[in-house]
Amino acid sequence: EQKKIVEILEEQLSRLDAALASVRTIREKAAQFRRSLLHAAFTGALTGHDSLSGTLPEGWEEKTLGEVAKWGSGGTPKSVVKKYYGGDIPWTVIGDLTEGLVLETTQAITQEGLDSSSAKIVNPGTVLLAMYGASIGRTGIAGTSMATNQAIAFAIPDVRFLDNEFLLKFLQSQKQAFVKAGQGGAQPNISQTMIKVWPVLVPPLAEQEKIVEILGEQLSHLDASLAV
């Protein structure tokens, strides 16, 4: 009976290993498709431009992130001062970033805590980007007024040039490059100085909206297929 048990276990575990390998392959292919889709979006290929021609798509401009958005970062009230915490001001840390709309935070600070630190209130629609540690490149969009800590850079797009959803997706497309750029120190990080000179190709606003729409639809289908 022991031999029979071992035989059955080996057979079932072998099937499990094969299934896990298949899942890993599917997820790797999905990640590759996501990267390809984002690359196509921000080179013009997604909206029908010839991205191999070596020229900018018509109406697109070469900019830096510092030229198309106002950047800043927050701060942290002293953790030993209890009266600085537990207030009614949402205080965002990297773990709160959702890659989409940020509506809830794990911590909140008081007005006194805000005033005592370099934390700043950002308005709904502000784009958020993690700069420190293993989470470099994680993103979100403020869904309500909130403060942030110093590990998060926030961007207020210049509405003449940039849609905030387009900026969010662009930052997500740059995650691997941000991670690579942040390597080399004791703790990986990127800086606002680095972010502000980061190149970005900027389409007309109407095309930005179209790109965001197509990306949302395609990525939604991808996520749904992975959830099955």
Sum up the structure in keywords.
alpha+beta; 5-stranded mixed beta sheet; 4-stranded mixed beta sheet; 7 helices; globular
Order of helices and strands: HEHEEEEHEEEEEHHHEH
Helix content: 40-55%
Q: How many separate helices? A: 7
How much of the sequence lies in strands comes to 15-25%
**Gyration radius from CA atoms, angstroms:** 22 Å
Q: Strand order across the biggest sheet?
A: 2-10-7-8-4
Report how far apart the termini are: 37 Å
Shape: globular
- Which spans have pLDDT < 50 for at least 5 consecutive residues? none
Major sheet:
5 strands, mixed
Structural class: alpha+beta
How many E-type strands? 11
**What do the pLDDT scores average to?**
92
Topology, please?
Blueprint: H1 2-41, E1 61-64, H2 65-68, E2 69-73, E3 85-92, E4 101-102, E5 107-109, H3 111-115, E6 121-122, E7 127-130, E8 139-142, E9 146-148, E10 152-157, H4 164-173, H5 175-181, H6 192-196, E11 199-202, H7 205-227
Parallel strand pairs: 3-9, 4-8
Antiparallel strand pairs: 1-11, 2-10, 3-5, 6-9, 7-8, 7-10
Helix pairs in contact: 1-7
Task: Please tell me about this protein's structure.
Helices cover 41% and strands 20% of the residues. It is built from seven helices and eleven strands. The mean pLDDT is 92. Strands 2-10-7-8-4 form a five-stranded mixed beta sheet. A hairpin with an 8-residue loop joins strand 7 (127-130) and strand 8 (139-142). It has helices at 2-41, 65-68, 111-115, 164-173, 175-181, 192-196, 205-227, and strands spanning 61-64, 69-73, 85-92, 101-102, 107-109, 121-122, 127-130, 139-142, 146-148, 152-157, 199-202. The protein has 228 residues and is α+β, with helices and mostly antiparallel strands. The radius of gyration is 22 Å and the shape is globular.
